[in-house]
């Protein structure tokens, strides 16, 4: 069995989370500059077996997709062209950034580290991955 890899796509930075090979535990992996995302993913799948990409689906409170979905759709097209053999699932990512920030507070992370937006993106990707795993 391979890993599941979650992506919290952003126009500047993208948070990435990964499962273990048994797909039991979700962990934050890293945050990469979005312009380097496809290169990172290609290198990662050369080293590790990835069964699926889980990508956040940004929605508004009224259940319509948010403006950032336009950017994600462009990325999805590039991803399917670059790595066509790994399927993609989408997961509602509403509130993940807020939950990630609250998780940092609850974990006792210092105020200075909570200002690290890359860490918030990585935790958000982990929450997206955990959400997917819980619904399976």
Task: Break the fold down into its secondary structure elements and pairings.
Layout: E1 3-8, E2 13-19, E3 26-33, H1 37-47, E4 50-57, H2 69-82, E5 88-92, H3 96-106, H4 111-114, H5 117-134
Parallel strand pairs: 1-4, 4-5
Antiparallel strand pairs: 1-2, 2-3
Helix pairs in contact: 3-5
Family: Belongs to the YqgF HJR family.
Keywords: Cytoplasm, Hydrolase, Nuclease, Ribosome biogenesis
Function: Could be a nuclease involved in processing of the 5'-end of pre-16S rRNA.
What does this structure look like?
This protein is α/β, with parallel strands linked by helices and 136 residues long. It has one domain (3-134): 2-Layer Sandwich (Nucleotidyltransferase, domain 5), CATH 3.30.420.140. Helix content is 43%, strand content 25%. The chain is built from five helices and five strands. It has a five-stranded mixed sheet with strand order 3-2-1-4-5, sandwiched between helices. Strand 1 and strand 2 form a beta hairpin. Helix 3 (96-106) packs across helix 5 (117-134). The chain is globular and about 40 Å long. The protein starts with a strand and ends with a helix. The model has no long low-confidence stretch (mean pLDDT 86). Keywords: Cytoplasm, Hydrolase, Nuclease, Ribosome biogenesis. It is found in: Cytoplasm. It comes from Winogradskyella immobilis.
């Amino acid at each position: 069995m391979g890993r599941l890899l979650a992506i919290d796509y952003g126009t500047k930075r993208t948070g990435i989370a990964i499962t273990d090979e048994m797909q039991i535990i979700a962990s934050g992996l890293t945050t990469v500059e979005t312009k380097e995302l496809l290169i990172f993913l290609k290198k990662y799948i050369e080293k590790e077996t990835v069964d699926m990409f889980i990508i956040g689906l940004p929605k508004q409170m009224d259940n319509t997709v948010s403006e950032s979905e336009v950017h994600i759709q462009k990325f999805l097209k590039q991803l399917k062209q670059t790595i066509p053999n790994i399927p993609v699932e989408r997961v509602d990512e509403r509130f993940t950034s807020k939950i990630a920030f609250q998780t940092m507070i609850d974990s006792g992370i210092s105020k200075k580290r909570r200002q690290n937006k890359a860490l918030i993106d990585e935790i958000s990707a982990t929450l997206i991955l955990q959400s997917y795993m819980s619904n399976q």
